[in-house]
Structure formats: structure tokens, C-alpha cells
Amino acid sequence: MRLLIDESLPQQIRLHWEEHEVVTVGYMGWRGIKNGKLLDIAEANGIDALITADQNIPFQQNMSSRKIAIVILAAQDNQLETLLPLVPAALEALKNIRFGEVVRITDQS
User: Fold this and answer.
1) DSSP single-letter state for residue 20
2) How many whole angstroms separate alpha carbon 20 and alpha carbon 9?
3) Which of 5, 42, 59, 99 is the most exposed place for a label (fewest CB within 10 A)?
4) What is the CATH number of the domain that holds 62?
């Protein structure tokens, strides 16, 4: 699965997604692109899921016809050490995620 790490997350988190091809928004040259356009570009480039901390995306985007999924890492802050405990649950969610689906991962997941 091809994953895109959003600029809302620390870039070092890209190293913790075993068995997936991972790129970052910065690496792809897509910094500053707004969510709807970012999803369009990601889909066009074969990205299967966006990994983000932006909890507003589901309220801003109609995901029903999208060919991309979203995993939201919801923690008290966006520090790597705070987010890393969420990665195992996110990896588990990716096993069954479908295009158009949004999954929110919290420390209670």
C-alpha cells in the first residue's frame, strides 16, 4: 500500500510503517496544498491512504467517491513520541481500510 504522510505530522514518523511504501508531502513537493486538492493529487499519483493529524478533513471533504482512504492520528500533540503509540493500531486499520473510508486512531482505539 502506498501511504502519504501529511505535513501535519513529524516527518520521522515515515520510518514506522512496515510493509508499506511511504512518501511525505514534503518529499513529493506538495507542501501548502489544501486538503481537497491534495487528495486529488495523491489519488492521481497512486496513493492509497493519507496519514494525517488533521481531524477536520472528514467534515471538509466528501469521501464517498474517493479512491483514497484517510487515517487520522488523534493525539494530545503532534510530537513523534506521542504519535508512535498510535502507529500499531493504524497499521491494523490499514489491513481492512477501503477507499473513501476515514479511520480515526486515538490512544483509546
Assistant:
1) S
2) 17
3) 59
4) 3.40.50
